[in-house]
TrEMBL record:
Residues 177-204, 218-234 have a biased composition (Low complexity). It comes from the Eukaryota. The keyword Signal applies. Residues 1-26 form the signal peptide. The keyword NAD does not apply. This is Glycopeptide. Residues 174-204, 218-254 are annotated as: Disordered. Keywords: Signal.
Amino acid sequence: MAFMELSLFLSFLSFLAIFCAVEVGASETHTIKFINQCGHGTPCLVLNGQNVSTGQDYTVNDIFAGIAYLQTGQCNTNGEGCTLLEMNLINPACAGCGSSVDISLISPHVYNVEASFAYYNGCDGYGADCNGPNCATAFFAPEDWDVQRECQANNVNLLIAFCANASDIVLGGGGSSPASSSSTSSSSTHTSIPLPSTGTTLSNTTMSTATILPLNVGSTPSASSSGSSPSASAKKCLTRPSSTSTLARREPTALGAKIHRRHRALRGSVID
């Protein structure tokens, strides 16, 4: 009898070891999706000073710390001169150590278009929308901690919307500002995207039962795209800073991570 109990116990330990090994070895994943309803401009997603997306879905099988903005002609590489979104997407390793996203209008960043974000595939619809130069949902000073939006779900994704409310889109309400024309896109002028229900991902091919709204998805810019863009060709995301002094003055990825860590430290959840 004792031998059988020992065998069962050892079997349980083996199962537990395998389970833990799988959990530890499993990598996290995050997808960032863009919707541009402004009728002009090019979404820019920047990681370590390099542009990694001009509106295409971007998926990373790791943590992600970067910035985003809509390039309308006046934005520098790190979003100077425009509405900036800062994001740290990470699976929480402790209470309060999960993802954090915010909108910043701290100088040298200034409002250029409505910008919003919302989580999905976890914390669905939770986010912020800055729709004016004096919006209450953006950083204007480093101590404006209350504008950060945190999510403690694993493998959470992010929708970033320009001239639209991302939270409304994720929750199925549409929430877009009127756009006079299409955004710059190489694939099509209008792309219908299913609005996700709780716990689902945004996808062009899934959620057949969801409400369908015509949404302009920022994509690879094309000079032949039609619309009321201020110029004949789409604005391009810059690939490097215009000056070393600008980069030294503002390094959003590092600053964003520092702000988020400091915020949590002040709340007592993380000690930096």
